[in-house]
Amino acid sequence: MTAIDLPDAEAQCSELADLIRPHLRPDTMLVGIHSGGAWVAGRLRRLLALPGEIGLLDVSFYRDDYGERGLHPRVKPSSIPFDVEGRPLILVDDVLFTGRTTRAAINELFDYGRPAFVQLAVLADRGQRQLPICADYCPWRVQLEPTQDLILSTGDDGCLRWSIAEHA
Amino acid sequence: MRNPQLNTHGELTHLLSIEGLPREVIIHILDTASSFLKVSAREVKKVPLLRGKSVFNVFFENSTRTRTTFEIAAKRLSADVINLDVTRSSTAKGETLLDTVDNLVAMHADMFVVRHAASGAPHLIAEHLRRLGKDSVHVINAGDGRHAHPTQGLLDMYTIRHYKKDFSHLVVAVVGDILHSRVARSDLHALLTLGVAEVRVIGPQTLLPTAVAAMGVRVCHDLATGLRDCDVVIMLRLQNERMNGALLPSAREYFSCYGLTPQALALARPDAIVMHPGPMNRGVEIDSDVADGPQAVILPQVTFGIAVRMAVMGILTGN
Prior knowledge:
Chain A has helices spanning 9-20, 36-47, 66-69, 100-110, and strands spanning 29-33, 55-57, 88-96, 117-125, 148-154, 160-166. Chain A is α/β, with parallel strands linked by helices and 168 residues long. Chain B has 319 residues and is an alpha/beta fold. In chain B, the strands form two sheets. In chain B, strands 7-6-5-8-9 form a five-stranded parallel β-sheet. In chain B, β1 (54-59), α2 (64-76) and β2 (80-84) form a beta-alpha-beta unit. The radius of gyration of chain B is 19 Å and the shape is globular.
């Protein structure tokens, strides 16, 4: 596959915020999935001028590939600094791919309480889903080879940046 | 020599002793434990990590507290827990240790949490499982003889890191019956591996191993000298059965020489923390005013112990 032009991830965060803004409720809270989703959720909070803190999830304890791959070597603590019960939530991740991470995140969220509803916001949707999950807000749909990983990282300037890595 | 705690990929597959554990493995366990600590504070205190796994608590020696904390840890990981009081059943009928293990493997055990009065019993079980090719069955040493109590050592390190953040500048004293204490051995190995500035062992000559200084620790027979400027004081339980032998004249005399009173603790740093693995003998090794005082972190140790055991079980089962 030829190299594709990778869009500006920071500009995409603004696009994502514009998509979410009309649907925000006064008590909506964001929950970012470690680590890329947490960065995006932090930017959305600022762009949408949300007053409260964002929630953070590390889904390592809920993953379905634990039996094959074991526990992730760098598990971060999950923290949900607000009451989930009855609240509208937007789950935020960087890339939507198989849908398995989203499934794990929804399961973990429900161990904190019963939200009013959960929506999904992602920067990129690369298709190839293995579960019946779709994003409610997404500024970029991209076709990639199965051997390609789409990676969001923060550069030295603190800006979010896309890259593509090949794996076997 | 092959490390009996690691699998062929170099991953931790059994936890038998802190001695020989690489520093990174200890740090990884402590880091993972801090994530599990948050789970116990939630509305639903459970994660599905060990769903469908069977954890057998096999205690050849009584210990309600340790067994309970392992049971809680396994249940918070969604494992099924089976408690066996083997001292009153199979062993009493003459079954050998490895026959007991074989029977439990035939019941599809995924993990053994073993306490035994004989040093090396968990290692024997781990080697037996290896010979059987049962690589997916894991062993955790919950205390063997005078040898090791690695999860206690790890939870003590977790507690120290929680309150003191960095190990490198700390002076840590372990006080009491070092000779008979597997907790002391695990703590000393962990402290030395993590690189604290100074480790001191404090106790009467009769309760210190002869070669303990060779480990690289400072030996003190005088409590006041040993406690001076300490950041962390780890008290050990004085077992009642030691009183009857020639090792100690009396509990009262022990308390007057080595009991941690507010006056003795005042010699340590003002922000020093006091730890104890429990169960405590008030008035023997520790004064009630210290045990209930603001510097004691004995109950937080219990809370951290659950998270540390969850981390160990989660890491082992994944490898």
